[in-house]
Design brief:
0% strand, elongated, Multidrug-efflux Transporter Regulator, Chain: A, Domain 2, DNA-binding, homodimer
Chain lengths: 159, 159
DNA sequence: GTAATACCTATAGTTACTAGAGGTTCAAGT
DNA sequence: ACTTGAACCTCTAGTAACTATAGGTATTAC
């Protein structure tokens, strides 16, 4: 991750998992989880077995958090980290990964837009009577009344 | 669900779980799962303990599948079914549920659009050199380089 | 010294299914 | 009637990416 070689100072500051979490915008549980699945290296421990971190960890975790915010899967983040750890590599792979992800995001966007439009249509046509005449229920009951929304498969990330 | 009273014919046709699944666009496992969580009533069994369905089940399952395609959660679908089962009710609740869902969809859409734009920006600025100068890695490393994407919380449905 | 807070591990729960093991039943062909 | 293959059955575990809980230890502030 473009590590600056840690200045071998005698006053290196160590922080606990709570502060690390606050600094990088996630929860301590998540930090431990990332360590467990190997996104973060096992942190060194103090006397009392508590994890101590340096600013390098803040940077790495921020990177992870940020990539996740973009909707990259954990496995994709793992690859991105691997690449970021090797600055001399050509960035073609990074580019490919990003483009692939962009394509997925655009597909989701298209689907979600269709859903939104159809939801709006449904809601606009609701006459406010009884469920028996409800257009929303009608549309859900009968696919022929629906214009755009296609069946799909699994769930996916990003809110 | 706006049931037509089933004509008490002596020639009522029963189908198996496989055909039901095909007719309504999901898999047998999913049908059993929906029965298990109570979205579908327990189906009557034949001599050999296999589930037998009528066309009513096809309609109900299609409704479920369709609502899921719209991104309604299973719990929301449960409520929608409950309402659809009572045609005399005012459809205000249905309307509220749909509007609430629309709002969520629009929020997701906004987020996803921001992600797409930022991904595009990232990709366009990639000079194709080494990872060391890669803008994509830079943006992921440093939130200040990123314009729009906000941290978020959990995962969500719809591809 | 003590009390509040932060930390530890390990396990289970979340959503909406999907996949697999290991066995039974059905429908068709011979 | 017999056999084969597809469809069906139940039960359990696995998926993604965490989150929550229980039950205990360490650190810090007063």
């Amino acid at each position: 991750m473009k590590e600056q070689k840690p200045a071998p100072s005698t006053t290196e500051r160590y922080i606990g998992i709570g502060e690390l979490a606050r600094e990088s915008g996630c929860k301590p549980e998540t930090v431990r989880y990332y360590e467990q699945i190997g996104l973060l290296p096992s942190a060194p421990r103090n006397e009392g077995n508590q994890r101590r971190y340096t600013t390098a960890a803040i940077r790495r975790l921020t990177f992870i958090r940020h990539a996740r915010d973009f909707g990259f899967s954990v496995e994709a983040v793992r690859e991105l980290l691997e690449m970021a750890d090797h600055p001399a590599m050509p960035c073609q792979e990074v580019d490919t990964l990003a483009k692939h992800h962009l394509a997925e995001v655009e597909a989701r966007l298209a689907r979600l837009t269709a859903v939104r439009d159809e939801l709006k249509r449904m809601i606009n046509q609701c006459a406010g009577g009884s469920v028996g005449q409800c257009h929303i229920i009608d549309v859900l009951s009968d696919h022929r009344l629906c214009h755009q929304v296609e069946p799909h498969g699994g769930a996916d990330v990003i809110g």
